[in-house]
Amino acid sequence: MCLWLGMAVILVGIDSDARNNSAAQKTNHATQEDAIREAVIGYQMGAWRGSGDKVERDAKEPRDKYIAKRLNSRICFVSINRKDPSDEFLKWFRGIPCTVKKVSDAIQTKDPDGGWVIDKKTEQRGIIFSANEIRWLKNTQVEVDGGYHCGGLCGAGEVFTVTLENGKWKVIADRMKWIS
């Protein structure tokens, strides 16, 4: 009887430790999610802004110039889980060479060519960058659903692989799920 009682106490203790470790891990993951989403949004903005001016400059034909100019957005809207990010979150993007705003500041026009995302106040074209669900693969690696939307016929859904390197989250790969 004492042996069974002792085993039961040990098993309860192990189960309790496992629950506590799991809860601590979830808390730790939650505190890192803003940094992970910041890495994904920053990666997308950097890639988009890095190529926009070059594509616009290199366009030769009138139609290509028109499209390049439309896609070279000067306003970047941010969506986190399909909602506005906090003001604190937006401060992380001060160094990005575009105006960064919350997704609620954007609307989509109803143009015959599919419509475009624009700023509600200035009516300048923009692009919405999103970072949504995070799936933990390891304590140092996640996958994040996200992508961009700039108009009715301009958008993509992607899965980003993000790893923790030297204390900082970094996008190491992105996989296109769909594009329009």
* Overall CATH architecture: Roll
Which shape, going by the Cα principal axes? globular
Strand order, biggest sheet?
A: 2-1-5-6-7-8
**Assembly state:** single chain
Number of domains: 1
Low-confidence stretches: 2-14, 16-21
What report would you give on this structure?
With 180 residues, the protein is of the alpha/beta class. It has one domain: Nuclear Transport Factor 2, Chain: A. It is 39% helix and 36% strand. It is globular, with a radius of gyration of 22 Å.
What keyword list fits this structure?
single chain, 180 residues, alpha/beta, Nuclear Transport Factor 2, Chain: A, 6-stranded mixed β-sheet, two-stranded antiparallel ribbon
Give the topology.
Blueprint: H1 2-58, H2 62-71, E1 75-80, H3 87-90, E2 99-102, E3 106-108, E4 117-119, E5 126-138, E6 141-151, E7 154-165, E8 168-179
Helix pairs in contact: 1-2
Question: In a nutshell, what does this entry contain?
Answer:
The protein is an alpha/beta fold. The chain has helices at 2-58, 62-71, 87-90; strands spanning 75-80, 99-102, 106-108, 117-119, 126-138, 141-151, 154-165, 168-179.
